[in-house]
Each structure stands twice: as structure tokens, then as C-alpha cells.
Structure prediction request, 72 residues.
Amino acid sequence: MPSAIEQIVDIYVRLKNRRGLDELMMHRQRLAVDLKSRSGYDFSLPIGHIDEEIAIIEAGLSRLAAGSSKAV
Prediction:
């Protein structure tokens, strides 16, 4: 079963919602930067999870770009 982020990205791609994907990406990137700048606790697990989500969003952006190039 796909994860929640995979389902969200899939819906954005199907709706051709580039802005939604971009906002999702920026949010995850801000979270990653914030967690990487903290100390005093091992944030490697949540950072790894966020990095995986960023990869899923990047794949969605690639799918969206590939789909829009076919329509031209």
C-alpha cells in the first residue's frame, strides 16, 4: 500500500498541480534544514524520512514534467 505522501503526490500529478508539489517540496526542505541545524538529539531518523519524502516529491515533479512535454 502506498504511503500517504505517495498518494498525495500521485493526486497532485494527476491534477497537474505543480504549485502544490512545489509547496510540498519547499515545506519538506525547510523541515530538513531545521532538523539538520539542531543539536542535542539524534534527528537522523526523521531527517531520513523527510529525505525519502523529498525523493518521492521529486519523482512526482519529474512525472509531471514528462507528462507536460508529451502534451506539447
